[in-house]
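ARCHIVE CARD
Drawer: 12
Card no.: 0347
Subject: one protein chain, sequence and derived structure
Cross-reference: see card 0346
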Amino acid sequence: MRHPFSARLAFLLCAALVVAGCAGRAARTSLNGNWVNPQFAGKTSFKKVLVITIGGNEFAQEAFQNQMAATLRSRGVNAVASGAYFEQQNEREEARFKRTIEASGADGVLLARVLAVDEGITQSLGMVIGPRGTPITGGPTLGTVYAAAFSPANYAPPQYFDAKSLVAETMLFEVQGKTMVWSAQTTTAYANRGDLAPAVQQFVNVVAGAMARDKMP
């Protein structure tokens, strides 16, 4: 007969594997599409590009601005992070937004904003832990119901994890004519997973890569 402690340990190990399998998914950004204003195709040349953002997380905005500006500078573009972060849409914030751009002296503005947030739920299935600590079933069967009711030490219940995804838009404007020069839309899956810095850097790489292919700025 198996010792109760061994059964409990096996259950905890299997439950941990379930959690690790879901939590291991890191934020990942993909490009949905991009657009180039035909009037500016191959003709963009800005003296100074200001990176500014609108979103729901000031830390993410700061990371994006700094990393995007650094990436553009590595390509020879005089890009600066605005250091101004916007999370609400009202008259006061709109006025501050305009003042930030005017005070920068930039002739180009790279604006990134969050368009939509999708809150999803991912569910891991319950499982019965066998005699040697391995899962016997992977779904809600009569066996799992029985195990949950009569032998909870040997049953790993379903786990639920949020799977947030963000749709963002990044746009390049020519300040003088207030004209959009370039834009791209991206989707970041599992945006709330993993460390912020590498997730933002991967987002920046996707956007900057699209800009480079379109010869922007």
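Annotation on reverse: The CA atoms of residues 118 and 165 lie 5 Å apart. The chain has one domain: 23-121+161-213.
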